[in-house]
Specification:
The structure is a single chain. The chain is an alpha+beta fold and 361 residues long. The protein has two domains: 3-73, no CATH class; 79-356, no CATH class. It has twelve helices and 13 strands. The strands form six sheets. It has a three-stranded antiparallel beta sheet with strand order 6-5-13, with no helix packed on it. It has a two-stranded antiparallel sheet with strand order 1-2. Residues 203-311 form the Palmitoyltransferase DHHC domain. One of its GO terms (molecular function) is protein-cysteine S-palmitoyltransferase activity. One of its GO terms (cellular component) is Golgi apparatus. Belongs to the DHHC palmitoyltransferase family. This is Palmitoyltransferase.
Length: 361
């Protein structure tokens, strides 16, 4: 780092023209924005050159204060940090706000999914959403639900262990995927478990050649293959257990509970949770946890079914509606080796074994 860069304060940066700029000062220089808005109000078509310049300018100015100079952040990565807290805070006001907030955000995610995949395929939006959800839910549980003094220490420890197990499985899933993508970037010939790289599958989202690809998980921001599918399934299991367990602990703390089978507490009457902000926030975080757990359970069931049938998700998505109703049994399944062998391939697969063959010059 040069002496000039060291002199930058936390809110300063060098813009596209390599001029020293300030986060607050950039709000006063909005020529590109003025031109775009003016053309829009007049009903005129915005030139492609102006669109590109406007997008580059907005992307360059979206920064956060940082030591040694303001750091640039992607707009799509910032969205979850704004949407999720706003959704939970709004939903905690009343029952109708809960329904409105959750349904609105749900429709937004459905609409934004295809948009981001087509326009920004390598977006971090969904992965940041996952991380933000983990942090927010755990923060609410520890600093809002725990002070109600209804959670036992051992219950909190069990939940923390489940969350830690999920994070470790998530890390293992991504690290194994990153190992494969780093290998595919090599200009050398590559033989992985006896397969030449020419037989690998190209991922349109992460733009890498991936061996034994099942699908690309945008929420984990990595491709799922035979080499990390086991840790992916474990991460789903631990996430479902943590979400359901935390939601039950939360609901039995803020609602009137009842005993089931003389040992298990379940929520009964939750009609008074919106009378206090802390109760409402805890309640909607538990509802959000349950909804996410249901979605993850559906994904887990789909993965279990496809592994048992020997059909990768990439092939399943190409099947016709009739074939899906028949569970793909009426189609050719070249990857099917029988249920036991299918699961052995997933459960016994660890780090990929590869050989790099350098090209002769």
């Amino acid at each position: 780092m040069s002496d000039e860069e060291r002199d930058l304060c936390c809110c300063e940066y060098y813009d596209l023209t390599n001029n020293r700029n300030h986060i607050l000062a950039c709000l006063c220089n909005c020529t590109d924005l003025d031109e775009a808005v003016d053309s829009f109000l007049k009903g005129q078509t915005i030139a492609e050159e102006n669109k590109t310049r406007f997008q580059n300018t907005m992307r360059d100015r979206l920064r956060i204060p940082w030591i040694g100079g303001a750091r640039q952040v992607a707009f799509d990565s910032v969205l979850p940090l704004m949407i999720l807290p706003l959704m939970l805070l709004t939903a905690s006001l009343s029952l109708w706000w809960t329904v409105f907030s959750f349904s609105t955000v749900g429709m937004f995610l459905l609409l934004i999914f295809n948009f981001f995949i087509k326009t920004i395929p390598r977006t971090k939006f969904f992965f940041v959403w996952t991380i933000t959800s983990i942090i927010l839910l755990y923060f609410i549980f520890e600093f809002v639900v725990i002070p109600f003094l209804k959670i036992l220490i051992e219950e909190n420890v069990i939940l923390s262990v489940l969350i830690f197990a999920f994070i470790m499985c998530l890390y293992l899933t991504k690290s194994r995927a990153d190992q494969l993508t780093s290998l595919s970037e090599s200009e050398s010939d590559l033989i992985l478990n006896g397969k030449n790289i020419e037989g690998f599958y190209s991922c349109k989202i992460c733009d890498h050649r991936i061996p034994d690809k099942d699908h690309h998980c945008v929420w984990f921001d990595c491709c799922i293959t035979n080499h990390n599918q086991c840790s992916f399934l474990l991460s789903l299991i631990f996430a479902i257990l943590a979400l359901l367990y935390s939601s039950n602990l939360t609901l039995t703390s803020v609602c009137h509970p009842f005993e089931f089978a003389k040992s298990i507490l379940l929520p009964d009457d939750c009609s008074e949770v919106y009378y206090q902000f802390e109760l409402g926030l805890s309640f909607v975080s538990a509802i959000y946890s349950i909804l996410v757990a249901i979605l993850l359970w559906l994904v887990l069931m789909q993965q279990i079914m496809l592994v048992s049938l020997g059909i990768p998700l990439r092939d399943w998505n190409k099947l016709s509606f009739t074939s899906k109703l028949c569970l793909g049994l009426n189609t050719n399944r070249p990857h099917n080796k029988g249920i036991i062998n299918n699961w052995s391939k997933i459960l016994c697969q660890t780090s990929p074994k590869y050989t790099v063959l350098h090209r002769d010059v």
